[in-house]
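quick one, 289 residues, struct below
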Amino acid sequence: MGEVEYTKIREEILRELPVRKARSNKGTYGKVLCIAGSVNMAGAAYLCGYGAYRAGVGLVRVLTPKENRVIIQELLPEAVLTTFDREYLDKEKIKEAFQRASVVAVGPGIGREAWVSELMEFLLMEYHGPLVIDADGLNYVAEHMDVFQKHEGEVIITPHVGEFSRLTEHPISKILENVPYWASRFGKKYHCICVLKDAPTAVGNADGRCFVNTTGNHGMSTGGSGDVLTGVIAGLWAQKIGALEAALLGVWLHGKSGDIAAQTEGTYGLMARHLLNCLPQAMGLRKEI
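---
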């Protein structure tokens, strides 16, 4: 296992923050489709969708099982919902949701029921736009790499080390020895961007370049933190910046939000919702560079 040269992701990445226009509407800033949540996991859909909104996207649509409708409408009334029956996927309705999206984010809280495999295969084969895959979406990919490679659009994956171990069939201990190496290797091999979440997070690009984050803290090791990151990256990407820029900026902002939150919440009681609350302050630092 060789050493990998990498660039540190620093505050200067804020220069990539999408410019807001005085004359604009929600369509100006893109649309994110969050395919997220399952029964008893509605919170993951909320955190992902809210993360996309906090990152500045114009509109969020949440595609989730019908059991989550009331919960999501109450938690995130700004989002549009498309719900489905887990026993029967209305693929025409789902395909219509794909067509309305600038970026699709899939995986947070979707679980491993039978409908997940059916939906993931349909997504990877029918949707070829920008795609962010996280969590249980990656668990599907780990078992169906052949289907994953048929997706024709740009892809950002956001695995933690356990999910990455399942993707690569390498032990966690081996991956932890050199996280930048593995992120870079995967990105280059599969022509995608690999955001390998660790302390620190490493981002491997499709051309073999690697970047390592400089923000974040151990208080962010909490349920829902990754769902927020998925939404933030998707929300930034939908605003017509490059895939690599969206990944790098999303990772830095996510970590910086955690650093800001830790100042008031501490690291023991830090929760995913605190990252969302602190994201505007992190983005506001752009004025200082």
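Residues 165 and 172 are 6 Å apart (CA to CA).
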